[in-house]
Design goal:
Elements: E1 8-12, E2 15-16, H1 23-38, E3 46-49, H2 51-59, H3 68-83, E4 86-87, E5 93-94, E6 96-102, E7 112-116, H4 120-130, H5 133-150, H6 164-176, H7 186-204, H8 212-226, H9 230-239, E8 247-253, E9 264-271, E10 278-286, H10 292-295, E11 301-302, H11 303-310, H12 312-329, E12 333-340, E13 343-351, H13 356-368, H14 374-377, H15 389-392, E14 395-396, H16 398-406, E15 410-413, E16 415-418, E17 421-427, H17 430-439, E18 445-449, H18 457-462, E19 465-468, H19 476-484, E20 487-490, E21 496-498, E22 503-506, E23 509-511, E24 516-520, E25 525-528, E26 533-534, H20 537-542, H21 553-568, E27 572-576, H22 580-588, E28 594-598, H23 599-602, H24 607-615, H25 619-644, E29 648-652, H26 664-669, H27 673-681, H28 685-694, H29 707-712, H30 714-733, E30 739-744, H31 750-771, E31 778-783, H32 786-790, H33 792-798, E32 801-804, H34 806-814, H35 822-830, H36 844-861, E33 866-869, H37 877-885, E34 890-893, H38 898-910
Parallel strand pairs: 4-5, 17-18, 18-19, 19-20, 27-28, 27-34, 28-29, 29-30, 30-31, 31-32, 32-33, 33-34
Antiparallel strand pairs: 1-2, 1-3, 3-8, 6-7, 6-8, 9-10, 9-12, 10-11, 12-13, 14-26, 15-25, 16-20, 17-24, 21-22, 22-23, 24-25
Helix pairs in contact: 4-5, 5-7, 6-7, 11-12, 13-21, 21-38, 22-25, 24-25, 25-30, 27-28, 30-31, 33-36, 37-38
The chain binds phosphoenolpyruvate and magnesium ion.
């Protein structure tokens, strides 16, 4: 026999069949209505049709289980008994509302119908009972309109069209010469209803339903159907809510906020949701119903300002309810209520949505008030780790952004790759950016490129933000921007950039260098013009030191919170940094070492020398060029060692394909480059061109890069190893402890690793002998191609540590180019082919499974093998949680993500 489903749960009169723990079945709203009943708060009686009904509905061609009809009728009887009224009665009618409520709240995405049960008979009774004929007609007018829009599907299909009901209402108001619908007389309302009904008949071919049971089933069907409307689908994709969850539907006795001037309806928060300041706050409207407050028809009043004066007793009730709710739920609540003749009724409570600022303040304050523990404060649902970004980056002034959006200046949307807000003048070339910055260091610039390359680095450094038309979350632009802490949007396909004409075509507009644009690295939005920004107070205290800790409440709470974070987390957090200033920033944010120093980034300032090395076609000439690079590398490493003061520093040997530094593209863009190099090397320009052409690869990412470079050109590895160990000896002699960890990139075969390791160890011994000093160091490898994970047991016999390079591991496992996937990933996400961007969040089933194999096999050979991750995923909260699960020792991420990774690591450790 099939399992008996309950399908319907009742609540009312201080008792409920459900409770707050049942949100999967009853949805958030249903579970909390039940819970509020159970703790004695005033809740109009009602019942919840479970999410199982919704799932049945979709699995069975939009029909209901057989037994549902009888269960709903019984539940309605229950409500009638509690409320002392009868559904459909011409004497004492009960009216109900029908509202959606999914497991996670999806504000405004699904549908609601109020005043169900009204027809011309019940309306008369309602008028008599309330002694308020106007109220009865007003309620009926609202019902016909809502039912028409939601159940009869008469909402305009085109966003430019007006709601047909609103059109009629406007015309009647205009004729009556009134501004608000609350000013319409009974006769005018009757006229509105008559016109509404006629339109229903005209458009649907049927009379507006008068049977209350038909009405209630119509509303239930509409609410379940709204689970699959477009808004809801888009919202779920954005927030990762599975479509399989389904929504519950709540049918609840109506209470009325539109019975007169001692009635009101409102929404409120038990603390402020923007900054987290204490105190009940919100909006209300006197003599109004349901949606009026949010619909913007009349301007609502502020609860904390007006309600204590206008309805002191009701305010008191509300304030007490707020306190009870916070004590009970141990979190800030977002409530909906109705005041009917001076009495407050609760229609909803849920944990309030909040900004990152409010999340931190509220969590810390609740601990300080003794309501929750430190562990509870750190829970992911209280502070999504990513939301810490808001405290660490400049943000747009929220009002200014709203205005910009309203003014229609939104130009395009790309992939949000570096959080924060930046506004500046358009600049297409890194060299122009540098020149502009040199002549005026205070100039605000946004570097706008089709994509970026190592040559753009200096320009990126002086720009406030970087915007590219191509590339994805681990493209050059994205990872360099993150490391520098720059605001960045990549893969913004709507941009049409013409370097030659120096124009940016977007959204039908043509912008030129010097024109202002503003980019939001949280949302990926690009705006035309200037949107003012505010600096981060945490950064002002920790980095720029323009504020003292005692001057910033936000900083104080941040510091308290991060203290708890470090108490509970197991994962260590390092940073990806190549420059001393980046390293210093990361340490201020709590980094415990460097997990990845990309040595090629250090070459950007020495392009002449590296190009000389690339075009050299004999070992001798290559060694000559390398000898020129050695002192630069040594200085760079010494700078890092000094800054890190004894913390471990993982230095990766040269990794990228050489054409990144010199290719036919460079020769083409800089016509005098070939001659310059020819002179430098004493060869002909043709010889340079030939050599450059011979370096060309069809798939450079899978070509001669990583350890393959050091194997074919061992002198490169030898030079880098020498620079590392000479710098280490130098800094050690200055009295600073050093812990270098030399990392071999792109290893797939044990022999590759051993080849490079031998060079590193040999050079180390030589340098130690020369300097008369010995340094402890490790040699290890990146694990970033699938073969390496599978043969991890072999590699770990030699390698002293592993670091997962999940950018390349994702690229090679999925066979998706990290630079080109932007072209289709948006489509994939919109069509539910892939849930999240695999270059931002680890693809657990594929890449993650390989990582698990790598960890398990690696530690099989070397029990205490130290394992970390240094791909971009190391700063992504969901990926950090995964790294904790598979027992990595550390994650490494860009400096500004260090606090986020620390928090995510604590959340992982505290998760059950
Ligand atoms: C990686 O592949 O994850 C990595 C860290 O190396 P890169 O991004 O420099 O290729
Ligand atoms: Mg890599």
């Amino acid at each position: 026999m099939s399992k008996e489903h309950k399908y319907v749960y009742t609540f009312g009169a201080g008792k409920a069949e459900g409770d707050a723990s049942m949100r999967n079945l009853l949805g958030g709203k249903g579970a909390n209505l039940a819970e509020m009943c159970n703790i004695g708060l005033p809740v109009p009686a009602g019942f919840t049709l479970t999410t199982e009904v919704c799932n049945y509905y979709y699995a069975n061609d939009q029909t209901y289980p057989k037994e549902l009809k009888q269960k709903v009728e019984a539940a309605l009887k229950h409500v009638e008994t509690i409320m002392g009224a009868e559904f459909g009665s011409a004497k004492n009618p009960l009216l109900v509302s029908c509202r959606s409520g999914a497991r996670e709240s999806m504000p405004g995405m699904m549908d609601t119908v109020l005043n169900i049960g009204l027809n011309e008979k019940t309306l008369e009774a309602l008028a008599k009972q309330s002694q308020n004929e106007r109220f009865a007609w007003d309620s009926y007018r609202r019902f016909v309109q809502m039912y028409g829009d939601v159940v009869l599907d008469m909402k305009p299909k085109d966003k430019r069209d007006a709601d047909p009901f609103e059109k009629i209402l406007e015309e009647v108001k205009h004729k009556a010469k009134v501004q608000y619908d609350s000013e319409l007389s009974v006769d005018q309302l009757k006229d509105v209803v008559a016109q509404f009904k006629k339109m229903v008949k005209d458009q649907t071919g049927k009379d507006f339903p008068t049977d209350p049971m038909e009405q209630v089933w119509g509303a239930i069907g509409a609410v379940f159907s709204s689970w699959m409307n477009d808004r809801a689908l888009v919202y779920r994709r954005q927030y990762g809510i599975p479509h399989e969850w389904g929504t519950a539907t709540n049918v609840q006795a109506m209470v009325f906020g539109n019975l007169g001037n001692d009635c009101a309806t409102g929404v409120g928060l038990t603390r402020d949701g923007a900054l987290g300041l204490p105190g009940f706050n919100g909006d209300y409207l006197v003599n109004a119903q349901g949606e009026d407050v949010v619909a913007g028809i009349r301007t609502p009043k502020r609860i904390e300002v007006e309600l204590p004066k206008e309805m002191p007793e009701a305010f008191q009730q509300l304030d007490n309810i707020g306190k009870t709710l916070e004590r009970h739920y141990k979190d800030v609540q977002d409530i909906e209520f109705t005041i009917q003749r001076g009495k407050v009724w609760m229609l909803q409570t849920r944990n309030a949505k909040r900004t990152g600022f409010a999340a931190v303040r509220i969590a810390v304050d609740l601990v300080n008030e003794g309501l929750i523990t430190e562990q509870e404060a750190l829970l992911k649902r209280r502070i999504p780790a990513d939301d810490l970004n808001q405290l660490l980056q400049p943000i747009f002034d929220p009002e200014a952004k709203k205005k910009a959006r309203a003014a229609g200046t939104l130009l395009a949307k790309g992939i949000a790759a570096g959080p924060g807000a930046a506004t500046g003048k358009i600049c297409f070339h890194a060299s122009d950016a540098e020149a502009l910055h040199n002549s005026d260091p205070s100039v605000d610039l946004i570097l706008v490129r089709r994509e970026t390359s190592p040559e753009d680095l200096r320009g990126m450094k002086v720009a406030k933000g970087i915007l590219t038309a191509f590339g994805g979350a681990s493209s050059h632009a994205a990872l360099v921007s993150r490391q520098m802490g720059k605001v960045c949007i990549v893969g913004c396909g709507a941009l049409n950039i013409d370097y030659h004409k120096e124009t940016l075509l977007v959204g039908g507009k043509t912008l030129k260098p010097g024109d202002w644009i503003s980019i939001d690295g949280f949302s990926g939005e690009v705006y035309e013009g200037k949107v003012p920004t505010k600096p981060s107070e945490v950064v002002e205290v920790l980095l720029s030191r323009t504020k003292k800790p005692e001057e910033s409440e936000i900083f104080q709470r941040y510091a308290q919170l991060m203290g708890w974070v470090d108490k509970f987390r197991k994962l260590r957090v390092r940073t990806n940094a190549d420059q001393p200033d980046e390293a210093a920033r990361a340490v201020a944010f709590g980094a415990e070492g460097i997990g990845l120093c990309r040595t090629e980034h250090m070459f950007f300032g020495h392009l002449d020398e590296i190009r000389e090395m690339i075009v050299a076609d004999t070992k001798e000439s290559r060694e000559k060029a390398l000898a020129k690079l050695l002192p630069f590398q040594r200085d760079d490493f010494a700078g890092l060692f000094r800054e890190m003061k004894g913390r471990p520093v993982t230095i990766r040997l040269l990794d990228p394909p050489l054409h990144e530094f010199l290719s036919e593209h460079h020769l083409h863009e800089q016509p005098d480059l070939a001659n310059k190099l020819a002179k430098q090397l004493g060869v002909s320009a043709e010889a340079i061109a030939r050599r450059v052409a011979s370096l060309k690869e069809s798939n450079p990412m899978l070509g001669h890069r990583g350890c393959r470079l050091g194997i074919v050109y061992p002198e490169i590895t030898a030079m880098q190893a020498r620079a590392i160990f000479e710098a280490a000896c130098l800094v050690k002699k200055e009295g600073i402890d050093v812990h270098p960890e030399v990392m071999i990139p792109l290893v797939g075969f044990l022999a590759e690793y051993k080849n490079q390791e031998a060079i590193v160890r040999e050079v180390a011994e030589k340098v130690f002998k020369e300097k008369g000093i010995k340094i402890d160091f490790l040699v290890g490898t990146m694990i970033e191609i699938p073969r390496a994970t599978v043969v991890a047991d072999q590699i770990a016999k030699a390698a002293e540590f592993f670091s997962f390079g999940t950018n390349d591991l994702t690229q090679t496992t999925l066979g998706m180019s990290r630079d080109d996937y932007g072209a289709f990933i948006g489509y994939y996400q919109e069509h539910d082919i892939i849930g999240s961007d695999p270059f931002q969040t680890i693809d657990k089933d594929g890449v993650g499974a390989l990582m698990k194999i790598g960890v398990e096999r690696g530690r099989r050979s070397r029990e205490n093998l130290k394992i970390g991750i240094c791909g971009e995923h190391g700063g992504d909260p969901a990926s950090v949680m995964f790294c904790h699960e598979i027992e990595l020792d550390y994650v490494s991420c860009s400096p500004f993500r260090v606090p986020i990774a620390r928090l995510a690591a604590a959340q992982a450790a505290l998760a059950k």
